[in-house]
Specification:
- By secondary structure, the protein is of the alpha/beta class.
- 28% of the residues lie in helices and 30% in strands.
- The protein has nine helices and 14 strands.
- The strands form three sheets. It has an eight-stranded mixed sheet with strand order 9-8-7-10-11-13-12-14, sandwiched between helices. A four-stranded antiparallel sheet has the order 3-4-5-6, with helices on one face. The protein has a two-stranded antiparallel sheet with strand order 1-2.
- Helix 5 packs across helix 6 and helix 6 crosses helix 9.
- The longest helix has 13 residues.
Length: 288
């Protein structure tokens, strides 16, 4: 079915399907935005990209990460950003569009996925985005000490965060890559009883002086499976402005920090490499 524009019918592109390292990838055209696409892996939504407007973030969790990018430094100042997990490079595109001259490194294990995105969702070659194939933690170890203003961890394998990206040892490597005033942000997915989320909050709080969590209130109450954005640093976080932005989102969320975040963690223990497990698999109903 086409859409009428200026009296003419615009043909809707067909979905693009390809097998990649992570499974069956599908690029699905957005019926509402002419040059926008969603990336799905084995039916699970991973990314959304608008080629005409790289500053458009369609998924709520990505908008929350977009707020972190916005608040990491004064408006417009270029950043050094390390993305662990690339997907369709939605957040790298956002940072490039909103903070021109930023220098970004993306580490993505699934090189076949990168080639699919490069072919069908190309990004501006003038943007300073370097994409490396490989494991996220191995790529992190290659980043010069103190290089990054911001590290974003958004890594999923089979809709689960790999265990080796959830530990205190992993966060010690993140801190090595960050500037002293740099920010760390991670996308964590969990559902009731939220044991994984609580352990990740405890792990982040053990590694950094300040931390907060942003999510849909229903997710924080354990009423549904969903994404939680953890933000941490060794400097005070822009909690007030982040709270305002998250609360006024088209899908309003809540920010927990300070004593409230500590209470939410509920005495959970920090995770080490020896005790780490992958995040729980989402129920099938999440993607229906």
């Amino acid at each position: 079915m086409g859409k009428r524009q200026n009296g003419r019918t615009r043909a809707t592109p067909e979905p693009i399907r390809r097998t990649v390292g992570g499974g069956a990838a599908e690029l699905v055209p957005d019926r509402e935005r002419a040059h926008a696409w969603s990336l799905l892996i084995d039916g699970a939504p991973q990314s959304h990209v608008d080629l005409d407007d790289p500053a458009h973030l369609d998924f709520a969790y990505q908008r929350r990460l977009g707020h972190v990018i916005d608040l990491a430094a004064p408006p417009g100042r270029p950043l050094n950003v390390l993305h662990l997990g690339g997907g369709a490079l939605t957040l790298a595109r956002y940072a490039a569009a909103t903070r021109p001259r930023s220098t970004q490194q993306v580490v993505e294990l699934d090189t076949a996925l990168v080639e699919l995105v490069r072919e069908h969702l190309p990004w501006d070659r003038t943007w300073r985005i370097k994409v490396r194939g490989g494991d996220a933690r191995a790529g992190l170890a290659k980043v010069p000490q103190g290089w990054a203003d911001l590290v974003i961890a958004d890594v999923f394998s089979g809709a689960r965060t790999p265990a080796h990206l959830t530990s205190t040892e992993f966060l010690a490597e993140v801190r090595q890559a960050l500037r002293p005033d740099g920010l760390y942000a991670a996308n964590v997915a969990d559902g009731a009883p939220l044991a994984f989320l609580r352990s990740q909050i405890a792990t982040v709080r053990s590694a950094f002086a300040y931390a907060c969590a942003a999510a849909d209130p229903a997710v924080l109450r354990g009423r549904r499976f969903g994404n939680v954005i953890l933000v941490a640093a060794d400097r005070e976080l822009p909690v007030a402005e982040l709270t305002r932005r998250v609360a006024t989102d088209p899908h309003p969320g809540r920010v927990e920090h300070g004593r409230g975040l500590a209470d939410f963690a509920g005495g959970a223990a920090a995770v080490t490499d020896a005790t780490a497990t992958a995040s729980p698999a989402p129920p099938e109903s999440v993607f229906r």
